[in-house]
Amino acid sequence: MKAYKCLTSDGFGVFSRFAWPLPDGEPGAWVESEVATCRSGIHACRSLDLPFWLTPALYEIELDGPVDEQAMKLVAPRGRLLRRIDAWNEESRLAYAQMCIARAGELAADASPRIAAWAPTPEQQLGGAAQLGFMTAQVAELLGGPDAYLEERRRQSEWLVEHLALA
Where are the domains of the chain? Predict the structure, then answer.
């Protein structure tokens, strides 16, 4: 199964600090791990999950074995990185940040100050793409409830799929 893996810019797992074997013209080496969700296993995501996990580097990953499909992630016993998604670069991260900031401003335009305070500002771009997406979705949720939060996350995912030309 093909999915996506978000890593640090130098190829480390954000939480595990595992140094992934990176692809270099061909897929990276297979990595195997016992599966214990949120503790061990090969964690990845579907395109719909991307806004929750965005980091500086995005890879396409191949998962093997039984894949446990969860609400915001996938977990498998085996995986290998196929290729880096080069379209997820400084330019696209900036465009995503600007989209999130504009969308949050649009949502919060007529909102109370308590809700408007959640809208990210250009100065908050340094917090990273995942944080900006969360803050924007939080504004949507405060205005329209949990379904609005999920709908905003879906919008973010669609933006990423379109702008990064993901399948």
Answer: 2-84, 90-164
